[in-house]
Specification:
- By secondary structure, this protein is an alpha+beta fold.
- The chain has 3 domains: 155 residues, Roll (2,3-Dihydroxybiphenyl 1,2-Dioxygenase, domain 1), CATH 3.10.180; 70 residues, no CATH class; 67 residues, no CATH class.
- 39% of the residues lie in helices and 27% in strands.
- It contains 12 helices and 13 strands.
- A hairpin with a 2-residue loop joins strand 12 and strand 13.
- Helix 9 packs across helix 10 and helix 9 crosses helix 11.
Length: 344
């Protein structure tokens, strides 16, 4: 499959899928990110053949077994542009043993800034597959529309790949058991490790939701109180009661940040989404500029603002950037000036 044919098939799939979404009243918001497309294969031989073909269209980021079959992920050399969205990753799964799957594009995956509960409440009559909510890392909610479907996430696939390929951090995350033990608190891993911006001093940042921070503090002390460097602190962040817990697991420092609101509503998560999209559109050049500034002691939000020449309070600017449409974010990373940020 050459580039022209691949792009033709991708755009046709997206047109049909967006028609499906329109028919059920679903419209992806302009500041969300279509993270990647999934191209199914029907046989193991076809998987091997297409994997070689797609290596001409992109760089193989990872090929790994998932639930008993291989999945290859490619970073496309030429991104797909569709209705203001930029899609630069392709996922190619081998067929599951004993399961028949038609060849071709099957679903797109979207990084959004609303909780899975809110998504289901918005569209109560639609068919959601909740199996992906049982995952520890990068939980997902699938909207089933027929031959074309949508999966919603809270982190990009590329960020998850970075996190999983950092064996020291990934093993510490598993050994600590944070995502498993605190599942009811809707934990989200954010920060510099999944962004590929970590330094030697970086923490693994995990956001939590808890209606009762006092009870959570007792739970955290019971779970992690004997870990090296254990520390608990109650403070006010943005005039909201906050619980911060720190400890070390396997030489890796963790910081748990809990508030009485869902992690997807917390400023730290919105900063993270803004930084993900900036890096996606700004590429390795922007990543290196930000890393250089961070290595010199600049905080992450301020480093992005300095690298992009954004004025004003860095924390507020990241919140503004997170709500921008892709065209405005591309303008920022291309150096065309400090765009107005009053809307998308």
């Amino acid at each position: 499959m050459n580039q022209i044919e691949f792009e033709r098939r991708a755009l046709l799939f997206l047109e049909l899928l967006f028609d499906d979404l329109a028919q059920v009243g679903v419209r992806p918001e302009a500041h969300w990110d279509i993270d990647h497309l999934c191209y199914r294969t029907s046989t193991a031989a076809e998987y091997d053949s297409l994997k070689l073909a797609f290596e001409d269209l992109g760089d193989l980021l990872i090929e790994a077994p998932v639930n008993g079959r291989l999945i290859a992920t490619f970073k496309l050399q030429k991104a797909i542009y569709f209705r203001g969205f930029v899609i630069d990753l392709l996922e190619l799964p081998a067929p599951k043993p004993g399961k028949l799957t038609p060849t071709g594009f099957e679903h797109m995956e979207v990084v959004c800034d609303v909780s899975f509960t809110e998504l289901q409440d918005r569209y109560p009559g639609l068919n959601f597959d909740r199996q992906g909510l049982s995952k520890d890392l990068n939980r997902e909610l699938e909207l089933c529309l027929g031959p074309r479907n949508v999966k919603f996430h809270h982190a990009s696939l590329e960020s998850i790949i970075r996190l999983e390929e950092n064996s020291r951090v990934h093993e510490a995350l598993q050994d600590a058991g944070v995502l498993r033990d605190l599942r009811s608190k809707n934990p989200l891993v954010v920060g510099t490790f999944p962004l590929g911006l970590s330094l030697e001093s970086s923490d693994v940042d995990v956001l939590l939701a808890a209606a009762d921070l006092g009870t959570l503090a007792k739970d955290l002390e019971q779970l992690y109180g004997l870990r090296p460097g254990f520390f608990l602190e109650h403070r006010s962040v943005n005039e909201r009661p906050t619980l911060i817990c720190r400890f070390t697991q396997g030489g890796v420092r963790f910081e748990l940040f809990a508030q009485n609101q869902e992690p997807v509503q917390q400023d730290a998560f919105r900063h993270y989404l803004a930084q993900e999209r900036l890096l996606k559109l700004g590429g390795e050049e922007l990543r290196q500029r930000v890393l250089h500034l961070r290595s010199a002691g600049t905080k992450t939000e301020a480093a992005f603002c300095q690298a992009l020449k954004l004025t004003g309070d860095p924390f507020q600017r990241m919140l503004e950037v997170q709500r921008l449409g892709t065209g405005q974010v591309r303008a920022l990373v291309s150096g065309r000036g400090d765009e107005k940020t009053e809307g998308t």
